[in-house]
């Protein structure tokens, strides 16, 4: 019997510090056994448990897209026991990955639609995965317009800066990068909070789905903007975080009403969330 | 399905021979309380018991269990790679378990053994265990199994049901495993008409003494959000001290934590019973806690058992009426009272 609690051993191929506060690092991981890599079949929006023997596990969204072969990446915010330990690990060290877990963004539903991606701060990891996935030459024609609103408190806190710049130069994706404030005279993008920038850029709700991930305060003030733009709750998609242990719907702690965030989520539409107890 | 009768004076030798073939677990008096334990001698088992203090869930889902072992030794090429901890999965018998507790394992199966994911340890222990239950001739004052879809003589979760008919035991097999168990016993007589009649009368008497104490159907019909937002939770939670006793003694509380323990250069990943009564259960690394308040945690326990579970699995409630939480709650919170509040036709919002 397959043991769903047993992590696949992986080697840390590289570690990149993403943000000026050094709190976000991206870990590029390579499977030690090719058969494990073959089993790790995922879609953007899913997550995995990162495992460090002797320290524990932590659930983190997968930042790479399945179109990127040979490795998987996770951008880890330094918060607690396991993430702090991860931040002190070095390239070449062995750790574990368990997954993929949870549902993904609803790619079968999104096909043929315009996709509006709204992200804030370090919650941009599975959104990065989604953008890379949709921009892949094999996939780009399957989606309509792609619009991205991505904000951070300051330019130095944006993730994936080089990729953001590359996407800015492309014709087939509309980028609206913003920061809350900056003293940088060379800053050439937007200044303002994500809800305000979303309102100003006013992406059309016509045949569109919105995927929104970010801090609760950003989501709280962006949802009315999306409603005003004409997005119904069925077409507003978000991804939730919750304390998890098993990641496979067994250990019992991540439920919101009947739903386990780890297995039935983490991706829910606003319409689905409105039917659940407000306990997240 | 077959049935046999074994006189009580012959039972110890039958049990002794069974114990020679496979490990047998049963209710054993430990200090002031009965608990399930491995029988070393036939006389260890006490079938005159009411029920054990803890549920027998630990036989399938131990309170603390090693999942994996690993080395952290610098020179070891396998350092940091988890290896499954070897375990004993020999066939075994659990004797004298109450029908409610056996039924609880089936409710727990829906969590541990699903179409998409199977808990390997739970599943293997379930597969290799024969459950020989003991009918309750005199249900306790805190028992309410008949209100939640099981009963003092319920065979649903058992392979064999034993009935204490005075001078001996009636054994009734209800599964293939149960048939094999009866066939393997070294003694056994045909069941006489008087024994069958006596068992029947005991069953009727036990069931009749309990009645229905609340309506599960009424709870299922009340909308989830109405129940979630009901005013009565404030009353229910008032006296709770979040000790977690109810969850630890409950046969359908399966929640667990996973922790790594390290000693020198070796370590293990361990799973341990956890409880929704504890604030840390849902405490995020960020400091956010979706169930930071006592009311939220108390509500979660009852809503999970009586509302979320039946809604998710389209079956009965996740409670078998064993009454352990009622008996052992230090502040006298009674799930039967809460169930009656939840089954009221009009649930007042806060």
Give your account of this protein's structure:
The complex is a heterodimer of chains A (280) and B (350). In chain A, α6 (194-201) packs parallel to α7 (216-229). Chain A has 2 domains: 8-101, Elongation Factor Tu (Ef-tu), domain 3 (Beta Barrel), CATH 2.40.30.10; 107-239, Rossmann fold, CATH 3.40.50.80. In chain A, a hairpin with a 6-residue loop joins β1 (8-17) and β2 (24-31). With 280 residues, chain A is α/β, with parallel strands linked by helices. In chain A, 22% of the residues lie in helices and 30% in strands. Chain A contains 8 helices and 15 strands. Chain A has a 7-stranded mixed β-sheet, sandwiched between helices. In chain B, α8 (232-238) crosses α10 (294-313). The model of chain B has no long low-confidence stretch (mean pLDDT 94). Chain B is 33% helix and 19% strand. A 7-stranded mixed β-sheet of chain B has the order 1-9-8-7-6-2-3, with helices on both faces. A 4-stranded antiparallel β-sheet of chain B has the order 5-4-11-10, with no helix packed on it. Chain B folds into 2 domains: 3-208, no CATH class; 216-265 and 273-342, no CATH class. Chain B has helices at residues 11-21, 99-112, 120-127, 176-184, 193-208, 216-221, 224-228, 232-238, 245-249, 294-313, 324-328, 335-342, and strands at 3-7, 24-30, 33-38, 64-71, 83-84, 92-97, 129-134, 160-164, 168-173, 256-263, 266-273. In chain B, a hairpin with a 2-residue loop joins β2 (24-30) and β3 (33-38). With 350 residues, chain B is α/β, with parallel strands linked by helices.
Topology record:
The complex is a heterodimer of chains A (280) and B (350).
Chain A: E1 8-17, E2 24-31, H1 34-39, E3 47-52, E4 56-61, E5 72-77, H2 81-87, E6 94-101, H3 107-110, E7 114-120, H4 125-135, E8 146-152, H5 161-168, E9 174-179, E10 190-191, H6 194-201, E11 208-213, H7 216-229, E12 236-239, E13 255-256, E14 259-260, E15 267-269, H8 270-274
Parallel strand pairs in A: 7-8, 7-11, 8-9, 9-10, 11-12
Antiparallel strand pairs in A: 1-2, 1-6, 2-5, 3-4, 3-6, 12-15, 13-14
Chain B: E1 3-7, H1 11-21, E2 24-30, E3 33-38, E4 64-71, E5 83-84, E6 92-97, H2 99-112, H3 120-127, E7 129-134, E8 160-164, E9 168-173, H4 176-184, H5 193-208, H6 216-221, H7 224-228, H8 232-238, H9 245-249, E10 256-263, E11 266-273, H10 294-313, H11 324-328, H12 335-342
Parallel strand pairs in B: 2-6, 6-7, 7-8
Antiparallel strand pairs in B: 1-9, 2-3, 4-5, 4-11, 8-9, 10-11
Helix pairs in contact in B: 8-10
């Amino acid at each position: 019997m397959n043991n769903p609690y047993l992590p696949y051993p992986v080697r840390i191929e590289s570690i990149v510090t993403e943000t000026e506060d050094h709190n976000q690092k991206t870990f590029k991981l390579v499977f030690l056994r090719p058969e494990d890599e073959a089993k790790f079949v995922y879609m953007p929006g899913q997550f995995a448990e990162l495992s460090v023997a002797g320290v524990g596990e932590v659930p983190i969204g997968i930042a790479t897209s399945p179109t990127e072969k040979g490795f998987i990446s996770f951008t880890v915010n330094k918060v607690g026991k396991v993430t702090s330990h991860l931040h002190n690990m070095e390239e070449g060290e062995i750790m574990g990955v368990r997954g993929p877990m949870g549902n993904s963004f609803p790619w079968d539903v999104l096909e043929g639609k315009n996709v509006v991606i709204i992200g804030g701060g370090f919650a941009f990891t599975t959104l990065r995965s989604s953008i890379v996935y949709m921009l892949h030459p094999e996939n780009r024609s399957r989606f309509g317009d792609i619009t991205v609103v991505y904000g951070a408190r300051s330019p130095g806190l944006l993730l994936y800066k080089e990729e953001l710049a590359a996407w800015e130069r492309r014709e087939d994706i509309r980028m609206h990068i913003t920061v809350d404030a900056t003293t940088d005279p060379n800053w050439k993008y937007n200044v303002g909070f994500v809800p305000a920038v979303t309102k100003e850029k006013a992406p059309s709700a016509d045949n569109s789905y919105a995927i929104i991930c970010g801090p609760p305060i950003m989501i709280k003030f962006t949802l009315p903007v999306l409603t005003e733009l004409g997005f119904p709750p069925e077409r507003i998609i978000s991804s939730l975080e919750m304390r998890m242990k098993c990641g496979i719907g067994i250990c019992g702690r991540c439920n919101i009403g009947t739903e386990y965030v780890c297995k039935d989520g983490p991706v829910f539409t606003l319409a689905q969330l409105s039917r659940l107890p407000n306990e997240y | 399905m077959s049935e046999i009768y074994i006189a009580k004076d012959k039972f110890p030798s039958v049990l002794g021979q069974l114990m020679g073939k496979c490990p047998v677990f049963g209710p054993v008096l430990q200090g002031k309380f009965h608990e399930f334990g491995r029988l070393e001698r036939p006389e260890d088992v006490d079938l005159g018991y009411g029920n054990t203090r803890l549920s027998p869930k630990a036989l399938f889902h131990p309170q603390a269990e090693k999942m994996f072992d690993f080395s952290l030794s610098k020179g070891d090429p396998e350092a940091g790679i988890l290896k499954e901890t070897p375990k004993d999965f020999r066939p075994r018998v659990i004797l004298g378990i109450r029908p409610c507790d056996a039924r609880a394992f089936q409710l727990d199966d829906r969590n541990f053994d699903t179409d998409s994911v199977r808990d390997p340890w739970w599943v293997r222990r379930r597969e290799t265990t024969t459950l020989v239950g003991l009918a309750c001739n005199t249900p306790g004052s805190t028992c309410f199994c008949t209100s939640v879809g099981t009963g003092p003589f319920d065979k649903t979760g058992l392979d064999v049901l034993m009935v204490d008919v005075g001078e001996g035991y009636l054994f009734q097999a209800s599964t293939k495993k149960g048939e094999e168990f009866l066939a393997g016993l070294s003694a056994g007589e045909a069941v006489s008409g008087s024994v069958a009649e006596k068992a029947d009368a005991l069953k009727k008497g036990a069931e009749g003494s309990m009645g229905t104490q609340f309506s599960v159907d009424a709870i299922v019909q009340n909308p989830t959000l109405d129940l979630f937002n009901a005013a009565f939770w404030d009353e229910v939670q008032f006296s709770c001290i979040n000790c977690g006793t109810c969850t630890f003694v409950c046969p359908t509380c399966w929640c667990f934590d996973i922790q790594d323990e390290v000693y020198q250069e070796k370590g293990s990943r361990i799973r341990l019973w956890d409880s929704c009564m504890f604030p840390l259960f849902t405490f995020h690394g960020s400091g956010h806690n979706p169930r930071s308040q006592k009311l939220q945690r108390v509500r979660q326990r009852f809503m999970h058992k009586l509302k979320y579970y039946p809604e998710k699995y389209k079956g009965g409630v996740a409670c078998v009426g064993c009454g352990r939480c009622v008996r052992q709650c230090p502040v006298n919170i009674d799930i039967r009272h809460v169930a009656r509040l939840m089954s009221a036709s009009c649930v007042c919002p806060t």
